[in-house]
Amino acid sequence: MREKFRSVQYRLLAKQDELKKNVQRRLHNPGGVSKPVFLVGCGRSGTSMFIWQLEKSWQIKLYNEDHPAAFDAYRLRDDAVIAGLIEQSQAPFTLLKPILDTVQTMHLLNHFADSKAIFAFRHFTDVINSSLKKFGTYNRINHVKGWMEEDFAEFAVCPPPEASKAVVRKLWQDDLSPEEGAALYWLFYNRLYYDLGLHDDPRTILICYETLVTKPREQFEKVIAFLEAEFEEKMVDGVHAKSINKNDPPPLRPAIMLACAALYEQMSQDAA
To answer: E strand or H helix at 158, and its extent?
Structure first.
């Protein structure tokens, strides 16, 4: 009974908060023009924390990856549906998190006028540990095995670059551990930042989770400036670094470890 009461109370508070935001949106954004922002990268990279912090602001209308209006089974709905949501938004920015559709980032940027992308990444050891804990031991390696057996058919709507597929094919072996499968999953999704050409696109900003939680004000101000929005103190309230290196790093064979470490180092330098 107590949990049911808390659930109802939470929904009421959330509804009240949204009503207050809508008042501010009508006051400060009377034209109702909204710019789309896509948060992409690899799952378990701290993206949920990031979007909920941004969503505290009236400036942001959020559609998380589990929102049925914008997503179907965590996949982004078609362009016409997303365009309709953006048009109805009223907030200066409509934030969507199509993590599983990171491969479509360039298409989204080109299709939606004035859109921007935030590419978030996190150290591979923490992502691997978090992935196995959240989704089960074999989820990630089964994804990668499916890519190998079906030539990345999972991404038929928007095939990934050959370079991204080649990295995974080179390191794949039938006897990989679940941790190593999760490492290849991390490697594939984060390689997309370079293989899609996002690193050369001014519409995209690269954000490192470790820096985000250790220097939250600096990093949130950086993102907000990129969006050309207004920074609000509430965006950084409660951000902490307790989840960094929370567990022992998983065992990985040398070739996979070196590939992941090299990519993380490259991304860290580019995000600095």
So the answer is: none
Cα–Cα separations (whole angstroms), residue 207 to 102, 143, 258, 272: 15, 25, 22, 9
Residue ranges in the chain assigned as alpha helix (H)? 2-28, 47-54, 79-88, 105-111, 124-135, 139-150, 162-171, 178-195, 209-214, 216-227, 254-271
What does pTM read for this prediction?
Answer: 0.95
Residues 196-207 as b/e (b if ≥16 CB within 10 A, e otherwise) read bebeebebbbbb
Map tokens 């670059």 to a residue: 161
Q: Per-residue pLDDT tens for 137-157?
A: 999 999 999 999 999 999 999
Question: Shortest CA distance to 96 belongs to which of 158, 22, 34, 26?
Answer: 34
Residues in Cβ contact with 183 at an 8 Å cutoff, skipping those fewer than 6 apart = 124, 128, 250, 252, 256, 257, 260
pLDDT 10s digits, 19-31 = 999 999 999 999 9
